[in-house]
Amino acid sequence: MASIRTFKTFLAVAKYGSFAAAGQEVGLTAAAVGLQIRALEEELDQVLFDRGPRSIVLNTAGRKAVPQVEELLSCYEALASPRDSDELSGKVMMGALVSTLMGAFADALWSLKQQHPKLKVQLFAGLSSDFAYQVESGELDAAIVTQPPRALASSLLWTPLYNEPMVLIVPRQPHFDLPAAPLDALRQAPFIRFDRSTWTGHLVKGVLNEAGVSTRDELELNSVEAAVEIVRQGFGISIVPQLAKVQWEKDRALRVIRLPGVTIERCVGLLERRSHSRLAFTAAIKEYFADSRPARGKRA
């Protein structure tokens, strides 16, 4: 019968797509990893990976097995640590938008780390669309992302955590003529647009449609932080989510304007597989935001 170590090796291969990289994770040679996977496939009487000349990827049977193996390992870890049943511990692989690390999610993470010192969280910054694939494939345990603009894979679950209003930001000292009326500014001033292919980019498009204006696009990028800095330096205006806990209203180089008639907000949430080995951690994240939601709503 397959051992716990074999199941850990299986998840490592699923994560890295390579016997060599998986071996570095679990402390085995590439050859030993290959033997374990082959033995597991023979025992289950099904092939779990499609093998190529330079990579190995999960097939349909393998993708189906991942959540089941994660659940098995989670149960084993719970049995192995009965005295710490209420303690979150071990390593969690987490994706997060850089903008979420500037405020609300950073608070949640800090709070959990204070309560559970044995917890180790490895963070990866990136885009929501990339995180969706990485969570589904098992490369990440979970990710903090914008609400998906389209349906997700059935194996994934997205839970809303908090909302951020979409606002117009303009420089206090622009290097161009800036109309006083917000909609006129959008029509005439150089516009710093968020990447249209991203999930936040879809929201910006929705805001412009709701406001009924067309913009004079100057730059297109995929970073809220970069857009804010370009506007701060006076080179354009932009529509961005008003980041939770970032006090732009006190910024001497920036003005934040609520657009008339615009109701669109960016909803930030937790993306995870429906079944995985870090359910206790993701449940704690969701509980933190559920407990703090009334206060956060007043601040917004």
CATH class of the domain at 164-265: Alpha Beta
CATH architecture of the domain at 164-265: 3-Layer(aba) Sandwich
How big a fraction of the residues is strand?
15-25%
Distance between termini? 55 Å
Question: Can you walk through the features of this model?
Answer:
The chain has 300 residues and is an alpha/beta fold. Among the domains are: 80 residues, Winged helix-like DNA-binding domain superfamily/Winged helix DNA-binding domain (Arc Repressor Mutant, subunit A); 102 residues, 3-Layer(aba) Sandwich (D-Maltodextrin-Binding Protein, domain 2). Helices cover 43% and strands 23% of the residues. It is built from 10 helices and 11 strands. The strands form 2 sheets. Strands 3, 4, 5, 6, 7, 8, 9, 10 and 11 form a 9-stranded mixed β-sheet that branches. Strands 1-2 form a two-stranded antiparallel sheet. Helix 1 crosses helix 4 and helix 2 crosses helix 3. The longest helix has 21 residues. 33% of the residues are buried. The C terminus is likely disordered.
Features:
alpha/beta; Arc Repressor Mutant, subunit A; D-Maltodextrin-Binding Protein, domain 2; 10 helices; transcription regulation
